[in-house]
Design goal:
The chain has 538 residues and is of the alpha/beta class. It has 17 helices and 27 strands.
Length: 538
């Protein structure tokens, strides 16, 4: 049944009223019903109110895939604030940038996750966090940041424990949340994406559009209240926060949360909870399908879901998830703007990303003339309807991405056939897409050029049968300098998110770099040459 609510806070209220004690969220040995989730999110919202958060304020969330992310983000919705989803792979510099650019007043973080020690990062960003005499951060370079809430055992003296914030929510008067409640056209999320530059851009997404687009995505997967979603995709990605969560919740489905993808753990969860919905990247499908213990687990409950990739990847995923949907979209289009019906003819579903969703207008134009093209003609993909209203506090990039007619200019190329089915062809931008993650070559290049031994650096994607592309760094060293491949990779691991670390490193001499007729580096030929030298066959 289509939800009546047009905000995420209202949606949670509706789910709690309709389903009450139905199991909503599963994580390790924890479980929350819809009613319990609503209660905890209200306590969290009241705690934020105690910290001075009001409607429209920004609250950053740096938490891995856990129940606390859901409690925090929907608590942020209930107080009418804006949730800034922070990439859990970020290091100190990127965390600081997001806090500053978003103007976040509160950061809700874990103490650590995997190899990332967030408290150590924060001690570099805001040393005041260690001062027991402070009750606010008051950092000159982060003038908006007032408080940090920490989930975990390592809570610095000037921060607040996550549990304490929930406790503080007990004493707030009853009508606060009604006074602060968001409206459908209010911003719910700011999700940061690199786009085609090294500087992250904050994509804004609205409450009402998240619900409507999410509902339509769920309809094409044929999700219902008896389903359970297996979710290991990081929650800061729009594929999860702007897509999977809303597609599931608008249909009353439960969510089984995996904190960090591991194929064996994934199979255990799917088997234990009888998950029916699969949201997975090609690298996940490959890992599960080829795991030596696969036959020990019952994965036959998986029947529906979404993935991305070329036709052979969709076919492979369909061996695991028979009614898998092929999709196209981006963060700027609320995750997806085209989705193939899970019950489509398999051959169409494997090749096409489906038709535009209800409320979405898709056109293909000549990249140079901007003239609309006929069915079957390949050109730039432009999307109107459920798209971002813009990048947060970034008028220049917003105007560059959205034209005067309200179309989002994707930078991707594709075509629509005579029956209205969309086919993705490739990208105009020089972005590398590895394992479903968009990676900016410029950010890696800039990092490598800080190394004292490196004179020239070029980053290309080379073919990979599992991830689609992996990153190769093509380097020229300074005279008399010596550097090994492993030293380059370790240098990148210290400074970059793990998905940006090159898989391959090649050392070329200056004369080996191909140039265009105008004397610029020929990226296409560099990529071809790198593939050839590696002997990569895809």
């Amino acid at each position: 049944m289509r939800p009546k609510s047009r905000t995420l806070s209202g949606l949670l209220d509706e789910l709690a009223e309709r389903y009450g004690t139905k199991e909503a969220l599963f994580f390790e040995d924890q479980m929350l019903t819809f009613a319990e989730w609503k209660k905890k999110s209200e306590l969290f919202a009241n705690g934020l109110y105690r910290l001075g958060i009001r409607k429209g304020d920004r609250v950053a969330v740096l938490i891995s895939n856990r129940i606390e992310w859901f409690v925090a983000m929907f608590g942020i919705a209930k107080i009418g604030a804006i949730g800034v989803a922070v990439n859990t792979w970020y290091k100190a510099d990127d965390i600081e940038y997001v806090l500053r650019q978003s103007g976040a007043k509160v950061l809700v973080t874990m103490d650590r996750f995997l190899k990332n020690n967030y408290i150590a990062h924060l001690q570099m960003i805001v040393p005041q966090i260690n001062d027991p005499s402070r009750n606010q951060m008051e950092a000159d370079h982060l003038p908006d940041l007032k408080q940090i809430v920490v989930l975990g055992d390592d809570v610095p003296p000037a921060a607040i424990a996550y549990k304490e914030l929930l406790h503080q929510g007990l004493g707030v008067r009853n009508n606060v949340l009604q006074e602060q409640a968001p409206l459908p056209n209010d911003i719910m999320y700011i999700l940061y994406t690199s786009g085609s530059t090294a500087i992250p851009k904050g994509v804004t997404l609205l409450h009402g559009d998240l619900i409507e687009n999410g509902y339509n995505i769920g309809e094409l997967q044929h999700i219902d209240e008896g389903d359970r979603l297996w979710l290991a995709v990081p929650l800061f990605f729009s594929f999860a926060s702007g897509n999977a969560i809303l597609a599931s919740l608008t249909h009353g489905a439960g969510i089984v949360i995996q904190e960090n993808f591991d194929a064996k753990v994934a199979m255990e969860l799917i088997d234990k909870h009888r998950c029916t919905i699969y949201y997975g990247m090609p690298v996940m499908t490959h890992a599960i399908s080829n795991h030596p213990d696969r036959q020990k687990y019952n994965l036959t409950t998986l029947q529906k879901g979404l993935t991305i990739g070329p036709s052979d990847v969709i076919k492979k995923t369909a061996e695991l998830v028979p009614n898998i949907s092929n999709v196209y979209g981006s963060t700027e289009t609320y995750g997806n703007c085209c989705v193939s019906d899970g019950l489509y003819d398999r051959e169409i579903r494997f090749a096409s990303q489906g038709k535009p969703l209800p409320g979405v207008d898709l056109k293909i134009v000549d990249p140079d003339t901007r003239i609309s093209l006929k069915p079957g003609e390949v050109g730039e993909v432009c999307v109107r309807g459920y798209i971002t209203p813009g990048y947060y506090k970034d008028e220049i990039n917003t105007n560059a991405a959205i034209d005067k007619d309200g179309y989002y200019l994707s930078g991707d190329v594709g075509y629509v056939d005579e029956n209205g089915y969309f086919y993705y062809v490739g990208r105009i931008k020089e972005m590398i897409k590895t394992g479903g993650i968009n990676v900016s070559p410029l950010s890696i290049q800039e990092c490598l050029l800080t190394h004292p031994a490196i004179k020239e650096a070029h980053i290309v994607g080379v073919d990979d049968s599992v991830k689609g592309e992996v990153i190769a760094a093509i380097l020229e060293l300074k005279e008399d300098k010596v550097l090994s491949e492993n030293e380059v990779i370790e240098y990148c691991k210290e400074k970059l998110p793990s998905y940006s670390v090159p898989r391959y490193v090649q050392f070329w001499k200056g004369e080996e770099f191909p140039l265009t007729d105008t004397g610029k580096m020929n990226k296409r030929l560099i990529k071809e040459k790198a593939n050839s030298r590696l002997g990569v066959k895809g």
